[in-house]
Amino acid sequence: MADKTHTNSHKTHVTIDPKDLLNYPVPLSPPLPSISKDIELSRAMSAASKSSLFSLSTNKVLFEDEWLIVVNKPQGIYCENVLASVPSLLADKLATEVNQLELHLANRLDRDTSGVMVITKSHKVAAKLVKAFTEHRVTKTYVAFCIGPTPQWGKITLKSGHGRSKFGAWRVYAASDVGRTLPGGSSVREMETLFEVLLVNGLGCFKDEEENIIVEEKSIIDSGEKKDEILVRAYPQSGRTHQIRLHCQYLGIPIRGDVKYEGVYEWKGREYGCHELHAESLSFEHPVTGLPVLIRAPLPVWASQALQGLAC
Fold first, then answer.
1. How far apart, in Å, are the Cα atoms of 21 and each of 12, 14, 17, 177?
2. Which residues are catalytic?
């Protein structure tokens, strides 16, 4: 951090900008790759066009009652467009006026993430369910297809900080930085994910030994190492933006197609237009009845095909 210095022939005057006194935490994950800017812009434009034409069909509904409707969000569709398509789906089934419903997204998925998405039908139910998510009383599982060196672990729990860098990108921070102020005025928040390896190059059967890592320094990844196809299941213990994607990047196994976080854009002669991450399941206490609810979304083709060839 540089001081602003003014000098004349008699004495030196030093003026310090108060902002320079702030010792901001340093992100431990890399900045966005240069290749990602143009690719992400193209993907966003394509998704916007596709989303504007989206219509929710009944085969995408995983669960519905008087208070909730849970859907399997397709890859490459914005959450807001899924929400906007719910009234037309319900109009065919409801005798009451659909406009009287107070529809809310209880959870959000990234544009290219598919899977379980919960929509509430009233403000009151929305408040209860959002509070359950905030208080980590909702259990979530995800499946991701990653490319990188074969992990030396069967299970691993990663604890780190999470926040926006001075350029506005989400980054991994040290666990000890949690609570510290970031350039934009927000603070570093805790982020924790448990990962389980399901397959490596089509083979399963891994040790049950579990590692725990508390992130305090940059990860060291050998870019020259052999890259394998790795299917993992993730159990996020917090709900941070891009959490699983960031932690996969930190572990050196970025998600296939996730160019924003160093995932391969091209693999074995094929280009990937989306990252391969799927919100597999949600379990929670029903906000009205109090009964346990477990909802699973069918696996996408890239995951089901990988698991079909499962062998030890």
1. 20, 14, 7, 17
2. 110
